[in-house]
């Protein structure tokens, strides 16, 4: 047993400490909370023991925040890529691309991400001709904010071997003009030929991306993240090795690793099942995509898009294939975590879960990821299953009001309906989906409470779905723990729970606007100060 740590002079917002006494201190030993109470009382109890003291200096203490859905590897890579998230027009996007082309050696790839034409006025993305006009000496590949649609110039199409005559792939599409010629857009799995011809990051680059991402998460007050990085890293064995090395090098950050379904064979060969791991890394569910995104109209809907009645979106995995993957996952000891944005995708996903039910005794639940377009019948079915909903509150200020044009008024009752999901008794976990949205969890909390963009002042989009600050914090604490099957050890500040704390400079329990001004003072993971602002 190692010497314990007494954290003193902390302020605990009402309800957070799960106690009715005046609390200002927490005693931690071996990474676990042993006692909470008043510092003077705890010092008396510990008078015969050796321990160290860490002074929180009057800062406010929350249970350790955990992002339930993000992509660590891509977030780390984003920090080095051309980022269009601040671009407000096509001209601005093209100017940023021009500047990057000027600094990039001829022939090298220019990779960018996080453009969103819905934020432009007019809402129009660059054409392939405009990309070619910026540079025809570099292959250009630009990932939309949803990560389900892409833009490329002619040189990128040439390197990928895609021509006007190339047939459409089974789970994706190439954008084309009325004349059938490629127009620069790429949808869903049609991106694979482009990815295959891009330079593969080496082991050092992948490890550095994960290190930088974890350090950024700690700086923002996150103690843990649920992530799916195998498509970035390329191997389950390599992923485990990288995280083991990072932990041995002193990086204190917890990860819950979803296993992309194509890596289940490797998992079987290594004898790895869901729930395996330790306090730093735990294996989670098998990750599957059932549809795309609303922005690019590839989310799969039961009825056609209101602003594009010729399409209902795209089923990335048809029901037969979804059932097959689910059956395989179950046989190997895995729940499933399914990206399902549209109501048709949610319906297919629930059918697969109902056909291959997960018993309540299984330590990890299934996960319905995003759950943005639902209806009453779908929610009723969700309540009868052992599942958690992975929701991303920041999607509301990012997607509204244009999402209303996509789905129409008749589908708004269960549109991003976080409150209804909680009222139905469904475990809901809060995440960012970084790098698609900012990783900062306080922006997610603000979105959950206000359902509007920072800097605006109105009642919010579909305000009946706004959450209280306590409900919002629970998304990123108790909810994330439930989705990982860890609610017995994480998500609250009380004896017997893991010593994970997010320590901030202000009280966020009274005024939602304070969430936008939060400064993280310390991030404590497993009883150690993994990040400190001082």
Biggest sheet descriptor? 8 strands, parallel
Q: How would you classify the helix and strand content by structural class?
A: alpha/beta
* Number of separate strands: 22
Question: How far apart, in Å, are the first and last alpha carbons?
Answer: 29 Å
Q: Given the structure, what is the number of helices?
A: 18
Strand content: 15-25%
Low-confidence stretches: none
Shape: globular
Range of helix content:
25-40%
Mean pLDDT: 95
Radius of gyration: 23 Å
Strand order of the largest sheet: 6-13-14-15-16-17-18-19
Oligomeric assembly: single chain
What this model shows, in words?
The protein has helices at 39-45, 72-78, 90-103, 128-134, 154-160, 192-196, 203-219, 230-233, 236-248, 264-270, 319-331, 343-355, 376-383, 395-399, 402-407, 418-423, 441-450, 469-483, and strands at 4-8, 25-29, 32-37, 51-55, 60-63, 65-70, 82-83, 110-115, 140-144, 149-152, 172-176, 182-188, 222-227, 254-260, 281-289, 336-340, 366-370, 387-391, 427-430, 501-504, 520-525, 528-532. It is an alpha/beta fold and 534 residues long. 51% of the residues are buried. Helix 2 (72-78) crosses helix 7, helix 11 crosses helix 12 and helix 17 (441-450) packs across helix 18 (469-483). The protein is 31% helix and 22% strand. Helix 13 (376-383) links the parallel strand 17 (366-370) and strand 18. It is built from 18 helices and 22 strands. It is globular and about 80 Å long.
């Amino acid at each position: 047993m190692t010497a314990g740590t007494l954290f003193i002079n902390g302020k605990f917002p009402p309800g957070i400490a799960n106690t009715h006494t005046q609390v200002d201190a927490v005693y931690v030993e071996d990474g676990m909370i042993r006692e909470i109470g008043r510092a003077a009382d705890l010092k008396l109890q510990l008078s015969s023991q050796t321990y160290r003291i860490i002074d929180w200096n009057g800062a406010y203490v929350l249970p350790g925040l955990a992002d339930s859905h993000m992509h660590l590897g891509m977030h780390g890579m984003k920090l080095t890529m051309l980022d269009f998230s601040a671009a407000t027009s096509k001209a601005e996007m093209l100017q940023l691309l021009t500047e990057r082309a000027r600094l990039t050696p001829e022939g090298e790839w220019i990779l960018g991400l996080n453009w969103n034409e819905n934020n432009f006025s007019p809402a129009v993305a660059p054409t392939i001709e405009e990309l070619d006009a910026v540079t025809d000496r570099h292959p250009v590949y630009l990932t939309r904010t949803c990560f389900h649609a892409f833009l490329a110039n002619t040189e990128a199409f040439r390197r990928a071997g895609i021509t006007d005559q190339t047939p459409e792939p089974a789970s994706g599409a190439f954008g084309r003009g009325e004349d059938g010629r490629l127009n620069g857009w790429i949808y869903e799995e049609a991106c694979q030929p482009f990815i295959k011809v891009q330079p593969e990051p080496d082991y050092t680059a992948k490890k550095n991306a994960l290190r930088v991402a974890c350090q950024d998460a700690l700086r923002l007050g996150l103690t843990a993240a649920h992530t799916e990085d195998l498509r970035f890293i390329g191997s389950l064995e390599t992923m485990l090795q990288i995280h083991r090395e990072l932990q041995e090098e002193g990086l204190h950050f917890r990860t819950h690793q979803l296993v992309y379904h194509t890596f289940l064979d490797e998992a079987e060969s290594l004898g790895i099942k869901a729930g395996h791991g330790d306090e730093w890394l735990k294996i989670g569910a098998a990750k599957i995509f059932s549809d795309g995104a609303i922005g690019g109209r590839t989310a799969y809907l039961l009825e056609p898009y209101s602003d594009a009645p010729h399409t209902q979106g795209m089923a990335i995995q048809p029901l037969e294939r979804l059932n097959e993957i689910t059956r395989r996952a179950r046989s190997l000891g895995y729940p499933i975590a399914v990206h399902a944005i549209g109501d048709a995708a949610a319906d297919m996903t629930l059918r697969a879960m109902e056909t291959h039910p997960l018993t309540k005794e299984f330590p990890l639940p299934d996960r319905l990821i995003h759950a943005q377009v639902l209806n009453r019948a779908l929610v009723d079915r969700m309540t009868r299953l052992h599942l958690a909903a992975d929701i991303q509150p920041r999607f509301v200020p990012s997607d509204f009001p244009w999402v209303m044009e996509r789905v129409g008024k008749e589908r708004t009752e269960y549109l991003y309906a976080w409150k209804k999901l909680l009222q139905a008794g469904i475990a809901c976990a809060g995440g960012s989906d970084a790098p698609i949205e900012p990783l900062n969890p306080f922006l997610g909390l603000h979105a959950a409470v206000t359902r509007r963009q920072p800097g605006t002042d109105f009642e919010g989009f579909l305000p009946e779905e706004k959450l209280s600050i306590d409900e919002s914090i629970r998304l990123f604490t108790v909810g994330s723990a439930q989705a990982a099957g860890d609610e017995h050890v994480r998500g609250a500040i009380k004896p017997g729970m893991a010593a994970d704390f997010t320590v901030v400079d202000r009280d966020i329990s009274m005024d939602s606007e304070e969430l936008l001004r939060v400064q993280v003072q310390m991030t404590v993971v497993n009883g150690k100060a993994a990040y400190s602002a001082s």
